[in-house]
Amino acid sequence: MNIVGLSKRFFSDRRSLHGINNALLKTVFTGRKPILGFSGRSIHELRKTGNFVIPRVFSVSRNLTTKASSSSSKQPAFLRWYLRKLESHPFMTKSITTSVIYMAADLTSQMITMEPTGSFDLIRTARMASFGLIFLGPSQHLWFSYLSKILPKRDVLTTFKKIMMGQVLFGPVSNTVFYSYNAALQGENSEEIVARLKRDLLPTLKNGLMYWPVCDFVTFKYVPVHLQPLMNSSCAYIWTIYLTYMANQTKADS
């Protein structure tokens, strides 16, 4: 459609400026030749010469962009920095975040169980932090990314499938590695590690059934994929207080 035909179409519609904008929008989105640059001229030039009225969709887009920028600027500086790091270095950021949460959870656990004259066991805290950094942080990143690919939907049925997979696969594996890793760093041999797993693993998994499904439902249903490890680690703060207490009990009889 040339400029003459377009002009006739515009001015044949007598429903005022509202009608002109509607006609222009129909022309833009019906697959005809683009009207956003006749003979290389820009929208600004065409608007100045009065050839057509800029459609409302451009104004709406501009307003949305302005609102998004405004809402982003209202976020705390630390949160903006963290989200940028999460986008640029997701693997390392999630690993360090999980390590910090595990360290804080262990210190809290020690405060709860510490004798009045006692002191913090910083070596124990280092063990917990290293587990979050080396194993849990990276594994969470890979696990949540994998689930989002094989189960991309976020409806209730898909959410329950993800919860089930977490309870059957991820939970038992991560807890087994956690107890084994912690015991090995405390100098326990293979027989003692097996005895610890027989004593502690099953009760841990049973107690997890009363806690993790609720956390997982909120995580999978409402939290974006790139923030799911952070949400999971935040829920793990409370859980790890219990877990570090269990992991640092006396050796089991082999």
Automatic annotation (TrEMBL):
Protein name listed in UniProt: At5g43140
Record's keyword terms, sorted: Membrane, Transmembrane, Transmembrane helix
Cleavable signal peptide: none
Organism the protein comes from: Arabidopsis thaliana
Entry-linked InterPro entries: Mpv17_PMP22
Pfam families cross-referenced by the UniProt entry: Mpv17_PMP22
Example of a GO cellular component annotation carried by this entry: cytoplasm
Compartments reported by the entry: Membrane
UniProt membrane topology term: Multi-pass membrane protein
Name of the encoding gene: MMG4.17
Family of this protein: Belongs to the peroxisomal membrane protein PXMP2/4 family.
